[in-house]
Amino acid sequence: MNTFGHLFRITTWGESHGGAVGVVIDGCPPQIDIDKDAIQFELNRRRPGQSHLTTPRQEEDVVEILSGVFEGKSLGTPISMLVWNKDARPAAYEHLKNLYRPSHADYTYQQKYGIRNWQGGGRASARETIGRVAAGAIAKQILHKHNETETLAYVKQIHTLKATVDTDTVTLQEIEASPVRCPDPIVSPKMAERIDQARRDQDSLGGIIESVCRNVPVGLGEPVFDKIKADLAKAMMSLPATMGFQIGSGFDGITMTGSEHNDEFYNDSGQIRTRTNNSGGTQGGITNGENIVFQVAFKPTATIGKPQQTVDKDGNEVTLQASGRHDPCVLVRAPAIVEAMAALVLTDHLLRHKAKS
Amino acid sequence: MNTFGHLFRITTWGESHGGAVGVVIDGCPPQIDIDKDAIQFELNRRRPGQSHLTTPRQEEDVVEILSGVFEGKSLGTPISMLVWNKDARPAAYEHLKNLYRPSHADYTYQQKYGIRNWQGGGRASARETIGRVAAGAIAKQILHKHNETETLAYVKQIHTLKATVDTDTVTLQEIEASPVRCPDPIVSPKMAERIDQARRDQDSLGGIIESVCRNVPVGLGEPVFDKIKADLAKAMMSLPATMGFQIGSGFDGITMTGSEHNDEFYNDSGQIRTRTNNSGGTQGGITNGENIVFQVAFKPTATIGKPQQTVDKDGNEVTLQASGRHDPCVLVRAPAIVEAMAALVLTDHLLRHKAKS
Amino acid sequence: MNTFGHLFRITTWGESHGGAVGVVIDGCPPQIDIDKDAIQFELNRRRPGQSHLTTPRQEEDVVEILSGVFEGKSLGTPISMLVWNKDARPAAYEHLKNLYRPSHADYTYQQKYGIRNWQGGGRASARETIGRVAAGAIAKQILHKHNETETLAYVKQIHTLKATVDTDTVTLQEIEASPVRCPDPIVSPKMAERIDQARRDQDSLGGIIESVCRNVPVGLGEPVFDKIKADLAKAMMSLPATMGFQIGSGFDGITMTGSEHNDEFYNDSGQIRTRTNNSGGTQGGITNGENIVFQVAFKPTATIGKPQQTVDKDGNEVTLQASGRHDPCVLVRAPAIVEAMAALVLTDHLLRHKAKS
Amino acid sequence: MNTFGHLFRITTWGESHGGAVGVVIDGCPPQIDIDKDAIQFELNRRRPGQSHLTTPRQEEDVVEILSGVFEGKSLGTPISMLVWNKDARPAAYEHLKNLYRPSHADYTYQQKYGIRNWQGGGRASARETIGRVAAGAIAKQILHKHNETETLAYVKQIHTLKATVDTDTVTLQEIEASPVRCPDPIVSPKMAERIDQARRDQDSLGGIIESVCRNVPVGLGEPVFDKIKADLAKAMMSLPATMGFQIGSGFDGITMTGSEHNDEFYNDSGQIRTRTNNSGGTQGGITNGENIVFQVAFKPTATIGKPQQTVDKDGNEVTLQASGRHDPCVLVRAPAIVEAMAALVLTDHLLRHKAKS
C-alpha cells in the first residue's frame, strides 16, 4: 500500500494539506553517514517554485530527522523524516470540494474510500513524493559508498521537443545547469520557451524523463517476479502522472530482428561486456554491469487553466474554470523523483543480493 | 522473489528441464468452482507447438491439481498445481554448458548464483510462465464470477506490422481464430508470412501485445505504491523478454497538451463516465470503471539460428551457432500469459479492496 | 522489522531520547471515527509517572495526528502519529555509554549494529511501545464498531502474588480502579505493597498479564502460519521483557488427558458453543467465538538499583551502580500495551477475513 | 497465510487426504549441498508408525525434489518438494463428514470457509507439517555450514512426568535412542508406559517439547517486531496442538527478583559471556551467543477413543465414538518438527543479518 521495498523499505504518509508529509525508512544499514544537506539538496530539486518555469507556490520543504540517526550516523533503526506543510490554504480549494477534476484522482478516491481530502489533491498530490525523495537521498549515499553507483535522470523530451544526451557522460552539473533539467544545450532553451507558451495558453505539457544508472554491480535482481526491470517499472509507474516505462531498446526495439537486437558479449581486458546495450543493463531480470537506461512517460499535467467540462458529486454536469497560476510542466521537477526511486530499487536489491552471498 | 501478489498470491517454481514446473496459489477464496478444463485450455494456448508458426517442441503440458480443491470447489487452502517436464533432453544443451548466449540470462545467472542449470534456460526459460498461466486461469474464474470482468490480450504489432483492433468489441474467438493471435483479419496473414520469413532467415521478431480488461469494478488499486498501473507494470515487466509497458495514451500521449489529453467526465444516465480514455481506465492509481488498456513490448526472441559472437565461461571469444529449429516469434503464445498476469493483478486488488469495505 | 500486520499494518519508529517516537498506520479502513481523546487515554495508561508505584519520570506523552484523518474521520490513507520526547536528558546516561547493563539490549545492539544510541535504551526502550498503543487505540475503535469486540488486559500475577479474575465479567473500570491494574480487590493492595518493598530494596519484580478478548467474530485466523494464536504469540513476544505466552489451558493443560481437556460442543439455542474453553477461543488457529484468553510472562525489570557485575565495551569487568529512582515493576503500565497488541492482531485478521468472504 | 519467513521463505500446501503435501522453499542460497538422505531422515523422524507408541498408520513419506537442485547443489531458485499421500482412505472418515469433533478444527474451518475437506483433518491435519520438516532439513544444512549451529529438540515432559536434561550436552543420538525421544534414561521408560496406558484407556496425553540451539551467531533478530523470540514464538504457535511458548526462565522466572534474574556479563578469555542464561540466549530480541533454550506446550491429542458429546452441522447434539486405533501422544514425533521450525527461523534471520553487514 504505502510501503515500498523488501529489505530497504520506505513507508510514506501525508496529504498535501494535512499537517505534514513524511517517510519512515526501515532497513537502512547501520553506520552510514547521513548527510542532511544532501537530503535537503534533493528536496530543493523536487520542490515547486525553483524558477519561473515551475509553480509559484513557494513551499519551504525543510526536512527534519526524528529518529534513527545518532551523531551523524544511521543506527540501523527506522529513520523517520518529515516536512511540515506550511503553505496550507484549504480555502483556495473550497470551490473544488464537490467537483471531479478531469484526469485527477478526485473521482476514484471518492468512489474507493467514500471520503477524500479535497484540499489540493490530498494523498494523490505530487507532494506525496517528498518522502520518496528524502529516502532516496539516503539510498544514494549507500549506493555511492558501496560501489560509487550513481543514478541520474533528466528531461529527455517535452511535448514534441526531443533532446540528445550521451548516457555514458552526462553529469548532474549539466542537468542542473538547465532550468528545465535537460542537459542538451540546444534543446533546453526551446523547451523553456515551449513551457512558457503553455502557461500563457493556460495549458500543460508532458514528456519523457530518461534515467541512467552507472557503476551498477553485476547480479542485482531477484527472478522471477522481482526482476530489476520489474521493480523499476513498478517504482516509476507508482509515480503520479506516469503513463509508460521502457528499458533499453524499449518500444523502439520491436522493429529490430533478433540478430540486430542481441547484445553480443566480448572480453574487455578480462571483464565480460556487451558491445551494444539494447538490454538496458539487465538480462534475465539481473543486472549485467552495463548501464541501466530507462525512460518514463509523463502525461501532460492534469491541472490546466482552460475551462473544462466535468461533473460534480451529484452527477450534475458543470464547467470547471481553475483559478490562480498553475504549473504547466511538472517534468522539470521530476528528475529528482525518478533518481530517488531508482536509488531505492537498487539499494533494496543490493541488500537482498548481499543476504544470499 | 518467486511470489507475486498480496492476498491472492502465487509462488511459481521449476526449471525448464528439472522434474516439473508448478505453482502454489495461496489466498484463493473458498467455494470457487475450479474448472480444470479451463486451466488446461489456457495452458494449451501458452504451449509451444500449436502450429507451424511456433516452436516444434511438442510439449504436453498437462496440469495436475494436488491440493486445495475438494469436490470441484476451492477449499480456501493452497492450490498446488504442476506440469511434468516430459520433453527433457539435457544432451541437446550440452554444447551450451559453458557458453553465454547473447541477450539470454546465462551470464547474469552464473554471476549472481555462481551456478546455473544450463539445460534449456533453467529458471529463466519461458517455461516458467506455466505456473502463472495456470494460476491466472483460476483468477479469471474469480473475476468472472464477481463482475463478469474479463481480461483479453492479443498481438497488436509484430516487427513493423501494426494491427487495428477495437478494444471495446474484440473477442476471444476473434483472437483465437488467428494463427498469430492477431484479431485484425487483414494484418494477421501478413504477420504469419513475416514470421515464416524470419524462420527461413534464422532470425527472430518482436512486437507488442495489447490487453484490454472490461467490466472492471471501480475502486481497485492501493495508492501510493500499489497503484493498479504500477502492479500491472511490474507483472508485465516480470515476464521474460519484455522491454516496455504503457497504459492509456502511453508514450504517444506526451505530444498532446493537457487540454487535449484530459478525460472529461460526463453523466451517462446516472453512471459517471469519461468521454475519452487516455487514462487507460485508471486515475490516481485506482480503476475508474472504464476499460483498462495497456501494451507490452517484447524484444525479438534472443534464440536465433544465425551465428553470433560471444564468450565462454573462461572469457574466450567464440562463435555460437545454434542447432535445431527455433521459435522465431514468441508473441503468438504471449496473449495467454499477459491475460493471466492481468487477471492475477485484478484478482489480488479485488480481494484487497473487499478487505476495506 | 519495524512493521507489524498484513492489511492493518503499523510501522513504529523512534528512540527513547531522539526527537520523537511515532507510528504510521497503513490500511486503516476509511470513514472510521478517529477519537483523539481515546488515543490519548490509552497513552496515559501506558505512560510512566501515573502514581507513586511507577517511575517518577514525568513524561507528557501528547499525541499529534499528522495525516490520514480529515474532519474527524479516517481517509483510508496512512495515519501518522507522533509524540515528542520532552524529557530527553542524555547527560543522565553518560555514565552508561560504554557499559553493558545486565539483561538489557546494550550488548546485543552494539554487536549487531556496531553502533547504538546509549541514551536511555535507544530503540530497545519501552518508550518504543508508544506507537503501538496509539495505533491500538484506533484498532479498538474499528473492532468496537464491527462487532463490539473488546480487548482487556490486567495484572494477573506479580512476583508470587496471584489474582483471581473472572474473564467473563471483568471490566475496564475494575482494572483502572486498581493502582496496580489488578482487578482482584484482595490481592491488589498486596501487590502495591510488594512493589513498594521492591523499590526500597533497589530491586524489581516481574509477573503475568492476562488478557481476554470478548465478542470475537468466528472465523478469524489464517492457517497454517498466521493462526490467530501464532500472531498473538508473536505480538506479545515482540514486547520488551516478555518471556512467555500461553493461550487457553496453556502450560497447565499438559497434565490433563484428552478426555479432560477437549472442549465439547453443544447447541446453545441455535448457537454452537463449547462447554469448556481450554482452547482459549481458537481451534485450528481460527477463532470459534468463545473468549480468547491468554497470558504473557514479563521478567522482572532489568533496571535495578542494586550494584551488579558487568563488563564494558573493552571487556573490562566493572561494577554497575545505577543512580536515581527506578521503576520496580513495569507490569502496572503493561495492560494498555497488551490490549493494543491484541487489538492490532484482531483488526488485521478481521480485514483479512473480509477479503475472502 | 501459508508462507513463513522473509528471506528464507517456505510455502506449504496439501491436505491430509488430497493428492500430496509439499513445500516450496524460496530464497535458499545457491551452491548449498542438498543431502536428500538428510531430508528423508527428518521426515522419518516425523512420520507416524515408527514404533508401537505412535499411530499404526504406516505412511511412507518419501520425499521427491522437483526443482531448484542441480547436480546435488541448490541453484538459488525455488526448491519444490512433495510427498504423495499413499494411505488415503476417505471412506474411513465418512462418518465424520457432518460432525464437529471436539477440540479439532472441523467447526472453525466450516465456519470460516463454508467448506472443508473432512477426510482426516484436511489442511488442519498434522500431516501439513511434512513440508516444514523437509524445508527445515535444508535450513539445518545451511546453519551447519555457516557456524555449525545446531537445533535440537526432545520430550521434556509428558503428562506429569518431567525429564532432567542438560541443554549444554544433550545429543541427537541420546534423543533418538529413546522410543519416546526423551533423553532422560530414567524417565523415558516411564513415559512409554504412561503412553501405553493412555492408549488402553482410549485417552491421550500432552506435554512439553524443549529445544536448545547451540553455536548461534551473535546478532540475529530484527527489532522491534521480528525479535528472535517473537519469530520463534510464532513459529511454534503455528504448529497444531501448541498452547504455549516460553524462552529462558519463561513463566517460572516471574517469581525471581531482578537482582536474581539478571544475567551478569563477564569476560571469558576475550569472549563476552553471561554467567546465567535466564534470558534464554536473547536480549532485546537479538541473540547474544548463549544457547537459545525454549519450551513448547502441546495439549493432549484431540483424537481419543472414548465417547464424547458434540454437535453435527445441523446443530443436533450427538455422541462421537471414534473407531480404529489412535495416536495417544503426538509428542514423540514432535521433536523433528520443532527443530525444523527453529532452523527455519534462525536461517531466515541469518540471511537477514547478512544483508545489513
Question: How is the secondary structure organized here?
Answer:
4 copies of one chain form a homotetramer.
Chain A lengths: L2 E2 L4 E5 L6 E7 L9 H11 L17 E2 L3 E2 L2 E2 L4 E6 L21 H8 L15 H19 L2 E9 L2 E2 L9 H6 L9 H14 L6 E8 L13 H10 L4 E6 L10 H4 L3 E4 L2 E4 L7 E2 L2 E2 L4 E7 L9 E4 L5 E4 L13 H23 L1
Antiparallel strand pairs in A: 1-2, 2-3, 3-7, 4-7, 5-6, 8-9, 8-10, 10-16, 11-16, 12-13, 14-15, 17-18
Helix pairs in contact in A: 1-3, 1-8, 3-8, 6-8
Overall structural class of chain A, as computed from helix and strand content, comes to alpha+beta
N→C terminal distance of chain A: 30 Å
Spell the H/E element sequence of chain A: EEEHEEEEHHEEHHEHEHEEEEEEEH
Number of helices of chain A: 8
Give the beta-strand count of chain A.
18
Q: Name the assembly state.
A: homotetramer
Percent of residues in beta strands of chain A: 15-25%
Low-confidence stretches of chain A: none
Main pleated-sheet profile of chain A: 5 strands, antiparallel
Q: From the alpha-carbon coordinates, what is the Rg of chain A to the nearest angstrom?
A: 21 Å
Taken from the alpha-carbon principal axes, the silhouette of chain A is globular
Which two protein chains have the largest interface (Cβ within 8 Å of the partner's Cβ), and how many residues from each?
A-B, 107 and 107 residues
Strand order in the sheet with the most strands of chain A: 1-2-3-7-4
